[in-house]
């Protein structure tokens, strides 16, 4: 019988196959074994009586324009009760929404921001995700000559892929477009109401919380995959440390995070990491520090040499 860790590693290949099927969805490594392929759009329509055949409604709308600066639009998802979408780090299963853009000449995407997710259990597995609704913020750099509203047809197109889950999961896709020369006043008012509701849900920048890494410890785990496994703890310090209640890690490029083992205890972040290759390295940990009412997006450096000394101590192997 496979353990959760070995299952998570072997089922990585399932998720890579899924990537191809649903055209360039990004992988955030985790256990996908609990996902059932079962529900189809017809199943959902029969179970709910909804004609749309999906538990997610997606919309695109204009939010803000700064002259000779940037353009901000929103991608809004209305989610049926009982279903949820995933964060950038989905947890032990799932895939986050992905967007492919087709932009007017001179426009370029500068950022796509996700709000702070909820952390919850689904069928016994840790999930970072969103229930009921989700707003993604897309910022674009724009040509200096552009003015709003546009004098001629100027269309932003977005193809969105997502995985939405309940007991089973559905893959959804929408192709949306926004004409910047024709913004309906009613939709504009609706967009502003949604933005007012969501703008406090996005994490604040790291500069607004006085917290830093004090000490890092690494230890070889007893069980691991083909490249071993390490337990890592980051002890934090700072004037605002009292605010921090939890930590939600962002995905790592060369490691799988065991979300079931991710903990925050009185100023210390604890993680269990499985390398995806021999010689995997980590020099920083990105994620969200959770406070009572505010969250902060942070980039916590791991001091130079900590991992090297750890590897040397083990004779070059995890």
Q: Care to describe what's here?
A:
This protein has two domains: 4-202, Thiol:disulfide interchange protein DsbD, N-terminal domain (Immunoglobulin-like, Sandwich), CATH 2.60.40; 206-313, Immunoglobulin-like (Sandwich), CATH 2.60.40. It is 15% helix and 44% strand. It has five helices and 19 strands. The protein has helices at 4-10, 12-21, 41-48, 185-198, 306-313, and strands at residues 56-65, 70-79, 84-91, 98-102, 108-113, 118-122, 125-131, 133-141, 155-165, 169-179, 204-205, 212-225, 228-237, 246-249, 255-257, 263-265, 268-275, 284-290, 295-301. Strands 12, 13, 15, 16 and 17 form a five-stranded antiparallel sheet that branches. The longest helix has 14 residues, at 185-198.
Query: Can you tell me the number of structural domains?
Result: 2
Give the overall form.
globular
CATH homologous superfamily grouping of the largest domain: Thiol:disulfide interchange protein DsbD, N-terminal domain
Q: Examine the secondary-structure arrangement and name the CATH architecture of the largest domain.
A: Sandwich
Which stretches are low in confidence, meaning pLDDT under 50 for 5 or more residues running? 1-38, 312-318
Instruction: Write down how many β-strands occur, each being a DSSP E stretch of 2 or more residues.
Output: 19
Supply the CATH class of the largest domain. Mainly Beta
What would you report as the Rg, rounded to the nearest angstrom? 21 Å
Overall structural class, as computed from helix and strand content, comes to mainly beta
What is the straight-line distance between the termini?
Answer: 24 Å
Q: Count up the helices.
A: 5
CATH topology type of the largest domain: Immunoglobulin-like
The fraction of residues assigned to DSSP E strands is: 35-45%
Average pLDDT metric: 83
> How many strands, what sense, and barrel or not for the largest sheet?
5 strands, antiparallel
How much helix, percentage-wise, in residues?
A: 10-25%
Q: H/E series, N to C? A: HHHEEEEEEEEEEHEEEEEEEEEH
């Amino acid at each position: 019988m496979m353990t959760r860790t070995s299952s998570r590693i072997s089922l990585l290949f399932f998720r890579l196959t899924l990537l191809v099927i649903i055209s360039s969805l990004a992988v955030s490594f985790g256990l996908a074994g609990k996902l059932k392929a079962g529900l189809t759009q017809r199943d959902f329509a029969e179970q709910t009586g909804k004609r749309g055949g999906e538990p997610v409604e997606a919309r695109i709308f204009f939010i803000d324009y700064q002259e000779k600066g940037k353009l901000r639009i929103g991608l809004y998802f209305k989610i049926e009760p009982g279903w949820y979408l995933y964060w950038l780090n989905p947890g032990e299963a799932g895939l986050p929404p992905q967007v492919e853009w087709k932009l007017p000449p001179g426009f370029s995407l500068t950022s796509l921001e996700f709000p702070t997710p909820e952390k919850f259990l689904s069928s016994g597995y840790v999930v970072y995700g969103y229930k009921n609704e989700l707003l993604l913020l897309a910022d674009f750099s724009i040509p200096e000559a552009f003015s709003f509203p546009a004098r001629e047809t100027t269309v932003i197109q977005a193809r969105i892929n997502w995985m939405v889950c309940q007991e089973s999961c559905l893959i959804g896709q929408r192709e949306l477009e926004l004409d910047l020369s024709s913004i309906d006043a009613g939709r504009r008012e609706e967009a502003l109401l949604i933005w007012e509701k969501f703008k406090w849900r996005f994490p604040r920048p790291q500069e607004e919380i006085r917290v830093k890494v004090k000490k890092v410890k690494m230890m070889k785990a007893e069980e691991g995959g083909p490249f071993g496994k390490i337990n890592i703890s980051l002890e934090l310090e700072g004037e605002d440390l009292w605010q921090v209640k939890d930590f939600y890690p962002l995905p790592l490029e060369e490691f799988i995070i065991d979300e079931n083992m991710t903990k925050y205890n009185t100023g210390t972040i604890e993680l269990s990491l499985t390398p995806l290759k021999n010689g995997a390295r980590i020099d920083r940990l990105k994620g969200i520090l959770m406070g009572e009412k505010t969250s902060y997006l942070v980039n916590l450096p791991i001091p130079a040499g900590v991992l090297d000394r750890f590897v040397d101590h083990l004779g070059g192997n995890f």
